[in-house]
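Fold it.
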Amino acid sequence: MAGSGRPQDRLDRVVRVIAQNMVAEVCSIYLSRAGGILELFATEGLKEEAVHQTRLRVGEGLVGLVAERGLPLNLSEAPQHPRFVYRPETGEDIYHSFLGVPILRTGKVVGVLVVQNVAPRRYKPEEVEALQTISMVIAELVGSGTLVDKDELSEDTATTGEPVTLDGMSLAGGVGAGVAVFHQPQVKITRTVADDVDTERLRLEEAIAEMRLQLEQLIEHPDLAHGGEHREVLETYRMFAYDQGWQEKMRDAVQSGLTAEAAVDRVQQENRARMYKIRDPYLRERVSDFEDLATRLIRIIQGDDSDYRTKLSEDSVLVARNIGPAELMEYDKQYLRAIVLEEGSATSHVTIIARAMGVPVLGRVQGLLTHVEAGEWVIVDTGNEHVYIRPADDVVETYKATLELQERLYAEYAAERDLPAETMDGHKITLFMNAGLLVDLPSLDNTGAEGIGLFRTEFQFMVSPALPRVDEQTKIYNAALDAAGDRPVVFRTLDIGGDKPVPFLPRDEEENPAMGWRAIRIALDRPALLRYQLRALLYAAEGRTLHVMFPMIAEVAELRRCKAILQKEIERLKKHDRTPPKEVKVGCMLEVPSLSWQLDLLLKEIDFLSIGTNDLMQFFFACDRGNPRLANRYDLLAPPVLAFLHMIIRACDNAGVPVTLCGEMGGRPIEAMALVALGLRRISISPTSVGPVKRMLRSINLKQLQDFLLSNITSPEHSIRDSLVNFARDHNIKV
């Protein structure tokens, strides 16, 4: 590749050398052209007349499949693969074995390198790695623009200058606007082959030491000084930087003849390929952490000490495929208004850090990078899960007006913070808030919530690579109790599994994980998990009242088993002369409809009940809440839902057991209006919902509302939502 001659001549020589060294009958190079086309540019073994004539679309045939996935494909019987496509002009029908690797440049597929053999065989891992190394060198030749015009390699063809609205998934709540700033973790590698292996090894070792030093400094960043889960994330991230397996692979790559930066990039490509084959979403998310580390390492090797914080000089929206937590910390929070990602998840480390920084994040935005250019105006609305790119003037004006109204409302909610949540005819409603992170706790005072009605304890487990120690759990629970003071905090025990995997607990693939091995089912099958957590809760509540509730209880027998484990931990506490809580109140979540047929027995066993409508309603309607086709099929204000909730509330009232609703349903003013009309007097909602719901409550006459709602609860209609909206409008209720 470093020799003289035309680029095409060099490609021709490369395929011949590869075929000879790998004892392959065929070696071919396909390069990307405009319009998602892969063109055969060079071959040894296929018919020469096919060069520059054979073309495949991305996704077409085995070559197209490699380009589509961006991953190697190793087959011993290629013609039997369902994606195999026969092109008679190439004469490739006699070849059985196939190995294709993507030619990647700055994270984009710019071609495919292929070897084939007549005899069926599966290529060895070292052969795959060798081909990946060669593809890196080819990528630099392609990037020079001498083979394919650089304009053809651009993926900005979807950028038209017209306004575009894209949908995504809210990962961290909020609204933000500013100019688009591309986060570009990919760095250009201009030298791939080492002149001196010892020198490259030294460059790598020095860069690893510098990277570790930088991470130690990040851990002490002022934004993380108050600790919490986001600090724990960076502690875990730092652990990755000391991963010996990762470093040994890079050292081996240098030993094979690559430069230090090329070795890092090659190993990261391998990691990416392996991680994307894993089904576990937690493990797949960790690939972004290694991407961050690899990018940081390459920048250090190349002497790039640019400070990303200096790039932001005005209100900015960060745009990226993905980003690592350490890279995010390098941006200036003063001007960072929002983040938009093509990937990302609610449990990714960068999402946790963004929440700690108070930055809205919209993820899973398909086609983001092809629709936006640097410097263009972008509006991010995570509430509606939209990103507006190059918005029209009327959208900008509407957004500005909406933002101004939102700011006024927030100011009004803040002014009403200390007012009671009481109806016009004197009925008191208790508003709690939901929490799960230590950064949520200041909202207790900011919103005027009367306590935490649901503290989700699983998050600490989801970000930890191993089961958190009892003392680590105790610190989190103690901080929550300290922040609440005399206000109650209701701790829900672990609700893991399903869509909330943890890295230290292996699990099988399930057809319906929402109704599978999760929550209390895991806890009862792995009682050590529950015992350690209950022990930490008892330690944290020393001398104070402890409220603990168990999730996903399907029958009273399960609850009794949980209570027995709790009692053992209380006895253990006394045996070790530890100060017990002043009082322990036990409750459970009503999320599984079967439990409602044991209410009489259940209410004798518990001190309080929490209705978890998020899960309860998907089981009630047999409707997967994660299925977009069913998202709006059923309404929570349907008469059967209201009748069911009314039955539960009356049973609790008759038994003298406090009942709270802690699902998203209670955080929307119209739904909350219906709930209090059914007799509910305790609602636990997100901090941002406390102000709007309190304002609604202070504007209603409950007696009038109850008469209206109960007269409609037996309606045969799909929903009574419209009727409630009209009632609110006619009676000046602030919804």
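Residues 197-219 form the longest helix (23 residues).
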